[in-house]
Amino acid sequence: MSSTEKIHPSISQATGHAVSKKAYHHGDLRAALIEATRQLVEEKGPDSFSVSEACRRAGVSTAAPYKHFKDKTEMLVATVLEGMVRHRNKMLSALEGVPEGSTERITAIGMEYVAFALNEPGIFRLKFGGFTDRIADPRLEESGQQSFGILLTEVAKCLGEPGITDEVRRRGFLLWSFVHGLSFILRDKGLAEKGGDFELYALLEEIAERMLR
Amino acid sequence: MSSTEKIHPSISQATGHAVSKKAYHHGDLRAALIEATRQLVEEKGPDSFSVSEACRRAGVSTAAPYKHFKDKTEMLVATVLEGMVRHRNKMLSALEGVPEGSTERITAIGMEYVAFALNEPGIFRLKFGGFTDRIADPRLEESGQQSFGILLTEVAKCLGEPGITDEVRRRGFLLWSFVHGLSFILRDKGLAEKGGDFELYALLEEIAERMLR
DNA sequence: TCATCAAGTTAGCATCTCTAACATATGTTA
DNA sequence: TAACATATGTTAGAGATGCTAACTTGATGA
């Protein structure tokens, strides 16, 4: 698929928007713009992203996005939200088949977390390291909490706690901090320099054990 | 001090530049622009920073910076480098008076790391979470390695290892990941929500113990 | 059928980065 | 000391961008 090809998704599923806005002129410009934004953020980096270029890629005028998004920031937020949904779903499916209450479940979540950072570094940066100064969007906040909740549930089972106790929250916070930092470092350094030295899975296992012991 | 006051530092010390460029028209425009950049990055956030505004604050035309920096990115890099020097010096002075080979030294470094992230979130973001897509400057890389070296030295002493062995590197990497992630999370959430729940120093102590045991 | 409204368009303003051409201070050298 | 070379600044302007206003078009439903 050529990178300059216009984007015309048939149906907007990921946006979670009213089906009523589905097919006017473009088909689903909102979804197309989100996809163009996602591509550009990965190709050029979040800082070099421009609305104009997304418009060119979606094959519409530069004024068109403003019928769907308040401004550039909202466009990025929508794109990040879409990414977070994918991220969460990946984490959940990574848990399938892994024994309940085992530390491997924690490790699996961590692997998926790091994988997302490495596979979609642009979105990852927008989501986390990103533009807190530009956005304090409650939807991003909430979406993050949901993902954190998945981890906490697993930690509770691992520790044999009855629910999300203070201790669970504390351990979860420590684990999250570690995996979060690891993701950033690996993403920044590139897998070559740091990931080559250590086996990622072994690293995450060791951490899970040290933290949950 | 008014935020619109012009910046006229008497002597450029932090830039580490040839003294020959000290006093032409402005005094030391290079240093003044770095300071203006630093202020703006903290006030408006790294994404909203503009060269024009830095010029206004330094009281020069918008073309003036290009006599000192190749482009906007180089201006930001110079500002981040200056911040990294300050950061490293703070870490080093945090070690003074703390017993050699104690885990408190590790904790002290961690505290300083987190403090920098919280006190200078804009620079911290540019330095790390920041604009890897825009910059892969070798000077930033090297400066980061130097800071990491400080940590590794302390880890080696803590573990009683003869030098920077593979095991030291591994533990140091784990510790760094954790503190790095913690800094990001605390910075993003704001101290209120997360830092309120846990005592930062205690958290870092616990981590140091779990990691170095 | 036709009025309404959603979703596009074009035109244009304000701002931004960066360059070219010009102006001036400084320090050097004949 | 006069003239030159260079560092450092200025003004003017090209090209890109974010966003708005005003207009056009096409789908939907009374």
Could you please describe the fold and organization of this structure?
The structure is a homodimer of 213-residue chains. The first copy, chain A, is mainly alpha-helical and 213 residues long. Chain A has a domain of 149 residues: Tetracycline Repressor, domain 2 (Orthogonal Bundle). The first copy, chain A, has eight helices and no strands. In chain A, α3 packs across α5, α3 runs parallel beside α6 and α4 crosses α5. The longest helix of chain A is centred in the C-terminal third of the chain and has 30 residues. The termini of chain A are far apart. The N terminus of chain A is likely disordered. Chain A binds a DNA duplex (30 and 30 nucleotides) through loops.
Strand and helix map with partners:
Two copies of one chain form a homodimer.
Chain A: H1 29-44, H2 51-58, H3 72-94, H4 103-119, H5 121-130, H6 138-159, H7 166-195, H8 200-212
Helix pairs in contact in A: 1-2, 1-3, 3-4, 3-5, 3-6, 4-5, 4-6, 4-7, 4-8, 6-7, 7-8
Chain A binds a DNA duplex (30 and 30 nucleotides) through residues 20-21, 23-26, 29, 50-52, 60-64, 66-68, 71-72.
The CATH topology annotation of the domain at 3-10 and 72-212 in chain A reads as: Tetracycline Repressor, domain 2
Biggest interface between chains: A-B, 40 and 40 residues
Indicate the CATH architecture of the domain at 3-10 and 72-212 in chain A: Orthogonal Bundle
Structural class of chain A: mainly alpha
Could you tell me the mean pLDDT of chain A?
84
Would you count the extended β strands of chain A for me? 0
Question: What is the quaternary state of this protein?
Answer: homodimer
Cα(first) to Cα(last) distance of chain A is 49 Å
Q: Judging from the principal axes of the Cα atoms, what is the shape of chain A? A: elongated
Largest sheet of chain A: none
Write the H/E string of chain A, N to C. HHHHHHHH
